[in-house]
Amino acid sequence: MNLLNYLAKKEEEYRDFDPLRAPYIFSKLAKDSKNLSNPKCKIIQILGTNGKGSTGRFLALMLRAFGFSVGHFTSPHLLSVCERFWLNGENLKLNVLDEALNKFDFEVLEEASYFEILTFLSLEVFSSCDYFICEAGLGGEYDSTATCFKSYMKVFTKIDFDHQDRLGNSIREIATTKLNAISVENKCVFVGIQEHNEVYNIATNIATLKNVKLKTIKTIPQYIKDYCKLNNYPPYQYENLTLASAVLCELGIDKESLYKIPKLDLLGRMQKLRDNVYLDVAHNVSGAKEILEVFRNSKIILVYNSYFDKNPFEILKILRPIIERVEIFEVKDNQRIITKDSLCEILDSLHIKYCDFESINSNHTYLVCGSFSVVGEFLSMGF
Predict the structure, then answer these.
(1) Which end of the chain is more exposed for a tag (fewer CB within 10 A), N or C?
(2) Would you say the C-alpha torsion 350, 282, 235, 218 has a positive or negative sign?
(3) Which stretches of 137-270 are assigned E, i.e. beta strand?
(4) Contact at 8 Å (CB) between 378 and 303?
(5) Distance between CA atoms of 254 and 256, rounded to whole angstroms?
């Protein structure tokens, strides 16, 4: 069975939360798989709202620099599903994923969601690594990565508003849902720098209840600032790298590993595509605040579109001081994308100039953002 063809039969990447479905399917698959039933790797799970991908990849790069075998499962992808499966510096080839998929019982797998299938695949292919850095999907305690895998450590990036329809309408509800993923077998739990102080309090209460060691990060060390400036990383990466470095120190590896790692190799994280074109997968209010900080003293043309449930009004309101104009980027065949009429109404209400995107002009600075779909389709067009 071809993975891409099999995934095409599935509809949405995430189905409604069912805390029983994924572990039930996983337990049946594990009966026939030593990789699932008895993995050799130490699993470090990354959860949160923003920064999961970068934090996980920084940690993977540092561990790899010290000679460990490391797998990193991240989501979503921009151009190829292979981007989700990084092993020792390279994305796995599709034929490797096809081979892994065909070890599973397809009758058992029938009820699994798109994301759950990829979750099971991740452990199948990374089971023999020293470390498996496993990024959660949109959830916390009910996410398939949390309900199926026993993690050695859990690492929480910034927790903020996103996916309110599934996680709750307040920071307290969202943070509680995510932090409830803390489990008694965790050797240590890390909570990165937070905008909302109540996240720290909730983490402390849950970790105390479950008798788990908790480390909270509230400041950025000078050596992280120096390293990020040296490598021209945007300000939001300072926090992600601080968190990854703290985990590394807990594993007994010195901070000097920073100077052994290559540049971050994830697409769409303030990626400089050309001298005047930047790509970023920011898609929520918290991400908009981070972009504002990057371009605070500039004016940009924003190549933009958004899912209707991502609060595009508030995002554009935050970015308005740096926007010269918005160029609306068409995203085809995606039912979650806001209608063009609705987006135009928002832009009119904010008094932001706009037009349709057609091409790149070398005399202007462009930022392409709004969703993974926007950045992915832009990249696929070969600009």
Answers:
(1) N
(2) positive
(3) 153-156, 188-191, 214-216
(4) yes
(5) 5
Q: Dihedrals φ, ψ of 179, to 5°?
A: -75, -20
Percent of the chain at pLDDT above 90? 87
Q: How many CB atoms lie within 10 A of CB 332?
A: 7
Percent of the chain with pLDDT over 70: 97
pLDDT in tens, 86-141: 999 999 999 999 999 999 999 999 999 999 999 999 999 999 999 999 999 977 89
- Report yes or no: 359 and 331 within 8 Å, Cβ to Cβ: no
Half-sphere exposure of 219 (CA within 13 A, CB side): 3
The dihedral built from the CA positions of residue 20, 25, 26 and 27, taken in this order, carries a sign that is positive
Distance, first Cα to last Cα, the chain: 34
Ordered structural domains, the chain, with CATH: 3-260 (3.40.1190.10), 271-380 (3.90.190.20)
Q: Residues with Cβ < 8 Å from 327, sequence gap 6 or more?
A: 301, 302, 303, 304, 354, 355, 356, 357, 358
Residue 346 has a pLDDT of 98
pLDDT of residue 226: 92
3-state secondary structure of 139: coil
d(CA 195, CA 283) in angstroms, rounded, equals: 17
Q: Tokens representing 363?
A: 């005399």
Instruction: Give the three-state DSSP class for 208.
Output: helix
Give CA–CA dist 296/355, Å, rounded. 23
C-alpha dist (Å) from residue 75 to 21, 103, 108: 20, 22, 24
Distance in angstroms (rounded) separating the CA atoms of residues 113 and 199: 30
List strands edge to edge, sheet with 300-304. Answer: 271-274, 277-279, 366-369, 300-304, 323-328, 354-356
Which of the four pLDDT bands, split at 50, 70 and 90, describes residue 165? low
Q: Which residues partner with 87 through β-bridges?
A: 71, 90
Residue 58 structure tokens: 């920084």
Torsion angle in degrees (nearest 10) through CA of 96, 50, 20, 25:
0
Phi/psi at 180 (5° precision): -65, -10
Residue-wise pLDDT tens digits, 197-246: 999 999 999 999 999 999 999 999 999 999 999 999 999 999 999 999 99
Question: CA–CA distance from 161 to each of 47, 169, 288 (Å)?
Answer: 14, 8, 12
